[in-house]
Amino acid sequence: SSFTVMFGFLFFFGLATFVFGYLAIVRRSMEQYRKMRSPQVTFRFSDETIYTKSDLGVSEMPWGTIDKLWKSSHVWLLMVTKVNYITLPADALDEELKQLISTKLER
Predict the structure, then answer these.
(1) Degrees, nearest 5: CA angle 95-28-92
(2) What percent helix, strand, coil does the chain show, rounded to 5?
(3) Quick one: which H or E segment has residue 50?
(4) Dihedral through CA 80, CA 58, CA 55, CA 105, nearest 10?
(5) Close Cβ partners of 102 (under 8 Å, ≥ 6 residues apart)
(6) Which one, 54, 71, 89, 101, has least CB within 10 Å?
(7) Segment 87-106, tens digit of pLDDT
(8) What pTM did the predictor assign?
């Protein structure tokens, strides 16, 4: 039926949009990574702020700056905007830090 065809089209269009969006995020992350002389970032988390330092600069922002938290088995993305985010390797986060981040961002 035409409903099935339309549903199939919308499903695959949504899936393709998600996949291309994910690939764009990965590509932007790798571009930033390649710009760094030393691919190391220092993070400090407190009850009020998130502090980052790398050879690209220093930043300290309040938790309220983070719009959303995306979790996967490999990385956690702290979404500042739809296209700007902080990437945290999931295996580098201990349980106490995971709890702090989740508590601050899962509104």
Answers:
(1) 15
(2) 50, 30, 25
(3) strand 49-54
(4) -30
(5) 69
(6) 89
(7) 898 999 999 999 999 999 97
(8) 0.64
